[in-house]
């Protein structure tokens, strides 16, 4: 049972009422956030949402305008970066090119004035953690991109921080290497058990790597949750739209809680919804359905299903799946995803085909914010 699922567990990191203003611009607005020991926590958001500023305040490179930050019970708000038990992993191109792998890692430890023998042990231990012991004598240019990344991490771990901070650590890598390195970083983090806090704008990266994600929007944290929670149960329209693709139907609730129905002006019939929060009759709501939850076909769906009619307007063939864009009578487009299990399928839909979309009431999420 993970500590972040235990309401009694004491968090390792705590942001309390943290805001940051630059002049009259508010970059971070009243963030309360708890991160637990052993987590791989990601701050996810679009460019300019304040995620880097939040990370830099944790590192001590920026001072909050309001609020305080605690690490392991200690108020570090006024503590300088080098005295905090955190260390930032810089991108691999920040390695010193003229130094060997071992010397790169030893560099910071020498600056701390540690005895030679201690440095040697720490360098060896951190290289071992990232499984790079064999490469200790090489120069950075004699390593692959992924190996350089591991050295950058070893350099960071050698200082034995309680928290490792990563700001878009994989942004410089190409897609294949990035995906391989994502899993590698997670494996190393799991092995060392140190808390990682990462900033990324890449939702796939955050979903792949994180125990929990804090989704940020305009300086605020919109939602904190595991990748599954954030995707399956987004709390707001913003999160639903930002993580994955979302079909949204605007409507008004008929009232009630649990199994309710929603009247949507653009559909001729009401939508049935299961697991809805308590809704006042006439409340404005959005019904959200993920593309993979939406069936698509030529036949009218069975009763008990929600459905909509439309015409195929675009098909994105992605190999494993195809995404069908379907134009409704209202003119709005929705997406349905189909797995391409059988190749050369006769019933394959094509442009301008009239189709029915169908989905289960339990796959319709009601959003009120
Ligand atoms: P990106 O992914 O582009 O780095 P971000 O979410 O990390 O975006 P921040 O770097 O935290 O965003 O910046 C948030 C906002 O604060 C931006 O609008 C930025 O221009 C502004 N900002 C950041 N640092 C400063 C600064 N030193 N002075 C003035 N404004 C700043």
From TrEMBL:
Cross-referenced Pfam families: ABC_tran, TOBE_2
Entry keyword Methyltransferase: no
Which SUPFAM superfamilies does the protein's record reference?
A: MOP-like, P-loop containing nucleoside triphosphate hydrolases
The EC designation for this entry is 7.6.2.11
List keywords of the entry alphabetically: ATP-binding, Cell inner membrane, Cell membrane, Membrane, Nucleotide-binding, Translocase, Transport
Gene3D superfamilies associated with the record: 2.40.50.100, P-loop containing nucleotide triphosphate hydrolases
- Is Cell inner membrane tagged as a keyword? yes
Give residue ranges for domain ABC transporter.
Answer: 13-243
Q: Which GO terms describe its cellular component?
A: ATP-binding cassette (ABC) transporter complex
Q: From which domain of life does this come?
A: Bacteria
The catalytic activity, as recorded, is: ATP + H2O + polyamine-[polyamine-binding protein]Side 1 = ADP + phosphate + polyamineSide 2 + [polyamine-binding protein]Side 1
Give GO terms: molecular function aspect only: ABC-type putrescine transporter activity; ATP binding; ATP hydrolysis activity
NCBIfam families on file? potA
**What PANTHER family would the database entry show?**
PUTRESCINE TRANSPORT ATP-BINDING PROTEIN POTG (PTHR42781:SF5), SPERMIDINE/PUTRESCINE IMPORT ATP-BINDING PROTEIN POTA (PTHR42781)
The Swiss-Prot or TrEMBL record describes its family as follows:
Belongs to the ABC transporter superfamily. Spermidine/putrescine importer (TC 3.A.1.11.1) family.
What role is this protein assigned? Answer: Part of the ABC transporter complex PotABCD involved in spermidine/putrescine import. Responsible for energy coupling to the transport system.
Quaternary structure annotation from Swiss-Prot or TrEMBL: The complex is composed of two ATP-binding proteins (PotA), two transmembrane proteins (PotB and PotC) and a solute-binding protein (PotD).
Put simply, this protein is called: Spermidine/putrescine import ATP-binding protein PotA
What organism does this protein naturally occur in? Paramagnetospirillum magnetotacticum MS-1
């Amino acid at each position: 049972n993970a500590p972040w699922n235990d309401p009694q567990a004491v968090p390792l990191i705590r942001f309390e009422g943290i805001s940051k203003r630059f002049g009259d611009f508010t970059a971070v607005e009243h963030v309360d956030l708890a991160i637990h020991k052993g987590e791989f926590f990601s701050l996810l958001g679009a460019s300019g949402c304040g995620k880097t500023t939040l990370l830099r305040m944790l590192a001590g490179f920026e001072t909050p305008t309001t609020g305080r930050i605690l690490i392991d019970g200690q108020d570090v708000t006024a503590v300088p970066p080098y005295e905090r038990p955190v260390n930032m992993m810089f991108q691999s191109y920040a390695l010193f090119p003229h130094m060997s792998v071992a010397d790169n890692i030893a560099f910071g430890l020498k600056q701390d004035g540690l005895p030679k023998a201690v440095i040697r042990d720490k360098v060896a231990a951190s290289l071992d953690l990232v499984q790079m012991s064999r490469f200790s004598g090489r120069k950075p240019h004699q390593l692959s991109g992924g190996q350089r990344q591991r050295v950058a991490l070893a350099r960071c771990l050698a200082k034995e921080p309680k928290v490792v901070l990563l700001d878009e650590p994989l942004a410089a890598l190409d897609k294949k290497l990035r995906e391989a390195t994502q899993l590698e970083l997670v494996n190393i983090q799991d092995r060392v058990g140190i808390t990682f806090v990462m900033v990324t704008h890449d939702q796939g990266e955050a979903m792949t790597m994180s125990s929990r994600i804090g989704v940020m929007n305009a300086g605020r944290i919109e939602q904190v949750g595991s990748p599954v929670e954030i995707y399956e149960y987004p709390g707001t329209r913003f999160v639903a739209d930002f993580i994955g693709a979302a079909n949204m139907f605007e409507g008004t609730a008929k009232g009630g809680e649990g199994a309710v129905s929603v009247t949507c002006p653009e559909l001729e019939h009401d939508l049935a919804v299961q697991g809805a929060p308590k809704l006042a009759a006439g409340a404005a709501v959005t019904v959200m359905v993920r593309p993979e939850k939406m069936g698509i076909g030529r036949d009218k769906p069975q009763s008990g299903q929600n459905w909509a009619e439309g015409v195929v307007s675009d098909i994105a063939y992605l190999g494993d799946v195809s995404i069908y864009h379907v134009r409704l009578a209202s003119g709005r487009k929705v997406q349905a995803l189909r797995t391409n299990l059988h190749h050369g399928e006769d019933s394959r839909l094509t442009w301008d085909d009239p189709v029915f979309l169908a989905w289960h009431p339990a796959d319709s999420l009601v959003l009120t914010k």
